[in-house]
Amino acid sequence: xxxxxxxxxxxxxxxGYLGMIYASRFDSRVRQLEAFRTALSQLEFDIRFLxxxxxxxxxxxxxxxxxxxxxxFRETARDMTQNKSVRISCVWEAAxxxxxxxxxxxxxxxxxxxxxxxxxxxGDTESEIGNIRAAQMRISVAEEEARAQSRKNVKxxxxxxxxxxxFAVILLx
Length: 173
Prior knowledge:
The chain has helices spanning about 1-50, 55-65, 65-80, 90-100, 105-115, 125-170. By secondary structure, it is an all-alpha fold. Helix 1 (about 1-50) packs antiparallel against helix 2 (about 55-65) and helix 3 (about 65-80) packs antiparallel against helix 4 (about 90-100). About 25% of the residues are buried. The mean pLDDT is about 90.
């Protein structure tokens, strides 16, 4: 009897834990979009006020970011210095593609993140700043959408995980 009760509790908590894991992806998406937006703000500052070349600005942003987002900026800066003949948008998109599976972003989020790379490094400082600001706005819109989905779905998936554990216990016993 005690073994059955203990096994039932393990199943219920396991279901709840799985629900929490799935729900945490929504919060991770919000944090990652916020980190991209912050990184672009720093990139804008470094280009506009510090007058850093693009590769140095990207390296500086990479140093301030952790995880996959920092790796994307770092790899882009490294590849830009090694392959000067390759378009910057190709270098950025290759770095994004490499670390894409480590982030919790949707296809629409990736389009917003990649949007600024198409004219990156091809104009003067003002066009770079305008391009970065446009990308920040697209990412901000995606971030607000992610926040709304997070508020809506986090409780749902946590509860669903717990209830599925309870349902499994009822079916088994």
